[in-house]
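User: Could you go from structure to sequence for me? I need the amino acid at each position, not a summary. Structure tokens:
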């Protein structure tokens, strides 16, 4: 999963400080898998390209192994083109659930 992120990517999840770099991002997502998230469905709402950057607005649904919904929400992703591929550069999301 971390390979889809840029070298200096950042996650900005709710309830957490910035998570920076591929190693920290890989650890974050491994912890999510260990907690029971088996799949995340992304529904793209909007995508705008600006040169070597693009901004995505989306909705997400997180599922467990039995396909039960664990969480739903929305997010914004900033993508960067590194000359070879588009990489996730900034990733922020928030749940629709009241905490």
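Assistant: Here is the amino acid at each position, in order:
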């Amino acid at each position: 999963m971390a390979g889809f992120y840029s070298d200096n990517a950042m996650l900005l999840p709710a309830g957490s400080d910035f998570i920076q770099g591929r190693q920290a991002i890989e650890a974050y997502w491994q912890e999510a898998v260990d907690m029971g998230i088996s799949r995340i469905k992304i529904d793209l709402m909007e995508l705008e390209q600006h040169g070597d950057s693009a901004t995505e607005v989306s909705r997400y649904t997180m599922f467990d192994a039995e396909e039960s919904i664990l969480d739903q929400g929305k997010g914004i992703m900033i993508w960067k083109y590194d000359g070879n591929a588009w990489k996730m550069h900034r990733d922020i999301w928030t749940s629709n659930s009241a905490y």
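One structural detail worth keeping in mind: The longest strand covers residues 69-81.
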